[in-house]
Each structure stands twice: as C-alpha cells, then as structure tokens.
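Quick review question:
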C-alpha cells in the first residue's frame, strides 16, 4: 500500500469517526443558531412569534434591556473572580500538598455536588438565605431586619456555590502538571514562599486560571436559574430576559437579537481569554474548553 493510500485511509477513518459529532453539532447547534439569526432581523407577528422581515429595529432596541445586560456583565465576571479566589487555595492544596493516598478521594468530593440537581441545591440556598435561615439566627443575637434573599449578594452566593467545582478542576489539572523541581529549586535558593508563588507557581498555572475564568464566565453569561430563584425577579440576567421574551412576551425577533448579541459577547470573551493565556503562558498550546 502506497503512502498516498495510507493517508487517504487515515483521512477516511478520521472523517468517519468525526461524522456523528459533526452531524449532531450541525443539527442541534449550527442550524438552530442560523434560525435565531434570521429571527433577529424579523418582526414580531401580531399574535406573537416571528414575522418575516429585514430590519435592524430589534438590535436598535437592545438598550431597553440594558439592566439585564449590565447585571450580567458585572455579576458574571465578578462571580468568576470570586470563584477563582476561593478555588485556587483548594486546587493548590489538592495538587501540591494533599497526600497522594487521599487525593483521588478529595478530588471526588469536589465533584460530589454535581450529583445533585442545581435546582435542588439552589432551593436549599433559598431556605438558608430566607427569613427562616441565616436572618432568623442573626435576629437571635440582636441583628434585626437583615435581608439576604432577593439581593445581588444572594445571587453571588449561588453563583460561587454552583460554579466553584468548574473553577477548581482546571486549576487542579494545571497545578498537578507543574514541575515541582522548579519550586524546590526556588526554595533551595532562598526565595520566600510568597515570592516562589508569584514568580513560579502562579505564572505556570495561568493556563488553568484562564481556562477556569473563561469557562465559568461563559456559562454565567447565559445563567437563568440562580438569578430567578435567589434574585426573586429583582436581579435580572440576560437569560431571564430571554425566557421572558420567548415564553411570555412571545417577541421572538427581539429575543433572538439579544441571543445573537450574547453569543457575540461569549465569543469575544473566549478570544480575549485565549489571547491572554497565550501571552502569559508564552505558547499557543493552551486549552480553554
């Protein structure tokens, strides 16, 4: 068999293996998104839904949902940053300090919350932050009228709790691959542990940092459940606006315009994260997905 025939067979094998996934993405991702783009340039039908047209009026009307955009653009990155601050020490301990005999068990405990539905866990936080939870305990020590539920604070608590494992795992993978001889060399040369961390550990773990931030931020940009339950309708995200427009107002073109804008923002966040990761890591061999 010639080299050309071998290459052709490899290409056919690769195409056959990728075909099911490619077909799945085409049918359930690409084609629906094309439909959303078409809807975005249409008009709302008198009875609701979509009416064929070609207009930019839906995009011009985006400022009417500015509150949802601002809440999302502020709370999503803020939630990702808080997740990073909380997750990094946990991932650092798991990767570099934990006993190897118990490391797998500890990593498994990080994943355990995913065994329970996010809806159930969020309802639990509704009780904890509600009037019969923490505020009731605070009233016993004299702190009356403390309101936690239906506030940005409650939404942020839910975000950190729900998305923390997704931040820990990329950090753990990045730190676990770190060459510990570099840390040992820094310690042998008399560097302070803080200096070692900021000069060696943190820079070498930046691919994991950027992966975690990008992953959590992108998911938060489309979050609906946590703001709806813990925000009580007072803290709106873009996801809440989309549900309102598609299912209640039945303004599909305007909802599609918001969805297209959200996808553009997600792509922009991903590109910026990749460029930052490449620049910091000094290589393009950085995975963000």
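Suggested answer, residue by residue:
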């Amino acid at each position: 068999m010639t080299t050309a025939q071998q290459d052709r067979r490899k290409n056919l094998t690769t195409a056959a293996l990728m075909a099911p996934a490619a077909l799945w993405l085409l049918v359930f991702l690409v084609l629906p998104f094309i439909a959303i783009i078409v809807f975005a340039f249409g008009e709302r039908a008198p009875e609701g839904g979509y009416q064929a047209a070609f207009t930019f009026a839906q995009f011009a009307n985006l400022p009417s949902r500015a509150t949802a955009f601002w809440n999302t653009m502020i709370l999503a990155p803020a939630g990702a940053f808080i997740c990073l601050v909380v997750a990094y020490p946990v991932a650092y301990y798991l990767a570099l300090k934990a006993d190897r005999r118990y490391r797998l068990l500890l990593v498994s405990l990080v994943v355990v919350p995913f065994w329970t539905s996010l809806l159930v866990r969020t309802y639990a936080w509704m009780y904890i932050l509600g009037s019969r939870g923490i505020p009731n305990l605070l009233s016993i020590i004299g702190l009356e009228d403390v309101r936690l539920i239906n506030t940005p604070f409650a939404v942020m608590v839910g975000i950190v709790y729900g998305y923390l494992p997704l931040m820990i795992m990329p950090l753990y993978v990045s730190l676990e691959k770190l060459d510990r001889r570099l840390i040992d060399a820094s310690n042998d040369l008399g560097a302070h542990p803080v200096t070692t961390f900021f000069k060696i550990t943190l820079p070498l773990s930046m691919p994991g940092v950027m992966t975690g931030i990008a992953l959590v931020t992108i998911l938060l940009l489309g979050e609906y459940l946590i703001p709806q339950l813990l925000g009580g309708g007072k803290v709106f995200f873009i996801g809440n606006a989309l549900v309102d427009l598609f299912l209640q107002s039945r303004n599909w073109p305007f909802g599609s315009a918001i969805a297209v804008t959200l996808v553009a923002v997600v792509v922009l966040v991903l590109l910026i994260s990749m460029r930052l990761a490449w620049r910091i890591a000094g290589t393009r061999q950085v995975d963000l997905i």
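Why it works: The chain has one domain: 35-41+51-281. The beta strands are 43-44, 50-51.
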